[in-house]
Write a structure and sequence with these properties.
Keywords: DNA-binding, Transcription, Transcription regulation. This is L-fucose operon activator. GO terms for molecular function: DNA binding; DNA-binding transcription factor activity. By secondary structure, this protein is of the alpha/beta class. The chain folds into 2 domains: 4-56, Orthogonal Bundle (Arc Repressor Mutant, subunit A), CATH 1.10.10.10; 68-246, 3-Layer(aba) Sandwich (Rossmann fold). It has 11 helices and 15 strands. It has helices at residues 4-15, 20-27, 31-43, 57-60, 66-71, 74-85, 100-108, 121-126, 152-160, 186-194, 233-241; strands at 17-19, 47-50, 53-56, 93-96, 114-118, 133-137, 141-143, 148-150, 163-169, 172-174, 177-180, 196-203, 214-218, 224-227, 245-247. The protein is globular and about 60 Å long.
């Protein structure tokens, strides 16, 4: 007889997403039982928990691999990373997401006394030859496609840290919002937004005035917007109204 966990995975693969209540009715169990099932399956990397339910891994993971992203707009990303370095300071705790733009920042961080926390194995490795930088890997469920860790364990670590600067990227910025193509790393980035004194958003020209599948957060949660070319006037006005510094 097929286990309930297997049936939940199969149900999500067929219908892409489901609420806790929907699954409880489908499998004739309590809401509390479904929540425990979903938390366990999420911890094993078999699905992604959302507010009030879950999403199939096959549905949510449509993002490009790191190797593909690394080659896209590489000169623009290097220019942005060069500017970010001037806004870092000794003894800071800096969090970097697993984006290729954040990786460019890691390549350029000088060997100063500071802490750098990241879910990205590439970023951790790129800092390994800088002895004054204390590197902290978040741990969690390893996803080979992104060469990074995700899931509840990563988010729990972020909750325990006092982060001075969070450095993140995204797939689009439009209509006063930050957009992402998949839900694999949204929870991690949202945790960074919530637990950091300052948030730096790194966006090359291809992402300006571009929406994607998922809204990650309001742009107003960002302190500095790093770009490689001047954004459209509407975005400039939004940043001015919300005290977001544009760094070019």
């Amino acid at each position: 007889m097929e286990s309930r966990h297997s049936l939940i995975i199969r149900y999500l693969e067929e219908f892409h997403q489901a609420s806790v209540l929907e699954l409880a009715e489908q499998f004739n169990v309590s809401v509390e039982t479904v929540r425990r099932d979903l938390n366990k399956l999420a911890a094993e990397g078999l699905l992604h928990r959302t507010h009030g339910g879950a999403v199939s891994n096959k549905q949510r993971d449509v993002g490009r691999s790191f190797h593909v992203r690394q080659r896209m707009n590489s000169n623009a990303k290097k220019m942005i990373a060069d500017n970010v370095i001037h806004h870092l300071f000794p003894e800071a705790t800096i969090a970097l997401d697993a984006s290729s733009t954040a990786w460019n920042v890691a390549q350029r961080i000088p060997n100063i006394p500071c802490k750098v926390v990241s879910s990205s194995m590439r970023i951790i490795y790129s800092l390994s030859h800088k002895p004054h930088i204390e590197t902290i890997a978040t741990g969690g469920v390893y996803v080979e496609k992104y060469n990074a860790f995700y899931g509840p364990l990563s988010e729990q670590l972020l909750s325990r840290l006092k982060i001075d600067i969070a450095i993140i990227s995204c797939t689009g910025v439009a209509d006063g919002a930050i957009w992402e193509s998949n839900e694999v790393n949204i929870a991690f980035k949202r945790k960074l937004l919530a637990n950091s004194k300052q948030v730096f958003l790194l966006v090359d020209h291809s992402k300006l005035e571009r929406k994607d599948r998922f809204k990650m957060a309001d742009l107003s949660e960002v302190d500095k917007l790093f770009v490689n070319q001047l954004p459209p006037k509407t975005l400039q006005n939004y940043c001015a109204q919300n005290s977001i510094e544009i760094v070019l």
